[in-house]
């Protein structure tokens, strides 16, 4: 199949999702978790399952309202607040006991300072920049051309923008940008670049003297089935986790699911098309 014939369709398709994501990010922003903003987290063990929803409702009705209340798989309710004093924490627990005496027990209380949140943001940005730079360098060395490395990193940027836009939109439904989101994003970027390298390797094997578009078409066709089969096994597992998993893992699995689909798409239809477009422009410039 002549995949390269439709390269501008792929670019427009990607551009549409990226523009929507950027618009959402600019207008709606993100729902930032306490990992980044700082705050307090109280974990409650539910002793009476029949009162679980009532406890969640009571938390949301209190004077100090939580930013979010999540349910874990081990019968815990995790309430995340802005910074709490000891007095405020005691008031929350007293208010809960008035309506739900004996139905719960506080098992954990922890605080995250704003300085820790800023430090985590800085470390996250550094990790992304360093990993992208090393990937660019490694691919450029392995394929003996910087255009392979730059094209792969641009495809990673594509996936990053898709994930950030998705996080902004999903924030309207309760998803927080926290350390689990960062973990999911780094995992997806490594998955995406691995798929890209597989296609690039096929292009390198076939590309001696051939037309770049024909070589790319053959390389994409030769790796498509393997890529789809690998991705489907992951997608099926993630769909099950989103549908059946607990509140604490739902958004993590959702971002992994979106990223897996985006990464599977971007390797043949973004990374390869950027590479071939680059080669065409270089050839035209030499003439």
TrEMBL record:
It comes from the Bacteria. The keyword Transport applies. Its main location: membrane. It is a multi-pass membrane protein. One of its GO terms (cellular component) is plasma membrane. Coiled coil: none annotated. One of its GO terms (molecular function) is protein-transporting ATPase activity. Part of the Sec protein translocase complex. Interacts with the SecYEG preprotein conducting channel. SecDF uses the proton motive force (PMF) to complete protein translocation after the ATP-dependent function of SecA. Forms a complex with SecD. Part of the essential Sec protein translocation apparatus which comprises SecA, SecYEG and auxiliary proteins SecDF. Other proteins may also be involved. This is Protein-export membrane protein SecF. It comes from Candidatus Woesebacteria bacterium RIFOXYA1_FULL_43_9. The lineage of its organism: Bacteria, Candidatus Woeseibacteriota. The gene is secF.
């Amino acid at each position: 199949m002549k995949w390269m014939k439709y390269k501008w369709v792929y670019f427009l398709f990607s551009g549409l999702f990226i523009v929507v994501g950027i618009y959402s990010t600019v207008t709606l922003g993100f729902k930032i978790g306490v990992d980044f903003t700082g705050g307090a987290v109280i974990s409650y063990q539910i002793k009476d399952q029949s009162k679980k929803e009532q406890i969640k409702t009571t938390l949301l009705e209190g004077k100090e309202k939580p930013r979010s209340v999540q349910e874990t798989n081990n019968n815990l309710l995790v309430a995340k607040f802005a910074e709490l004093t000891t007095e405020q924490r005691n008031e929350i627990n007293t208010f809960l006991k008035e309506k739900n005496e004996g139905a719960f027990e506080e098992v954990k209380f922890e605080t995250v300072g704003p300085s820790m949140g800023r430090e985590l943001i800085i470390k996250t940005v550094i990790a992304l920049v360093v990993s992208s730079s090393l990937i660019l360098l490694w691919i450029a060395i392995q394929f003996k051309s910087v255009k392979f490395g730059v094209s792969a990193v641009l495809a990673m940027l594509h996936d990053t923008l898709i994930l950030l836009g998705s996080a902004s939109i999903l924030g309207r439904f309760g998803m927080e940008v926290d350390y689990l989101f960062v973990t999911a994003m780094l995992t997806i970027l490594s998955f995406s670049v691995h798929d890209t390298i597989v296609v690039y390797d096929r292009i390198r094997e076939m590309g001696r003297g051939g037309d770049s578009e024909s070589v790319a078409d053959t390389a994409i066709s030769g790796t498509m089935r393997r890529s789809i089969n690998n991705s489907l096994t992951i997608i099926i597992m993630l769909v099950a986790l989103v549908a059946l998993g607990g509140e604490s893992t739902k958004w993590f699995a959702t971002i992994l699911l979106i990223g897996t689909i985006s990464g599977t798409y971007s390797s043949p239809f973004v990374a390869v098309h950027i590479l071939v477009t680059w080669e065409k422009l270089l050839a035209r410039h030499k003439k």
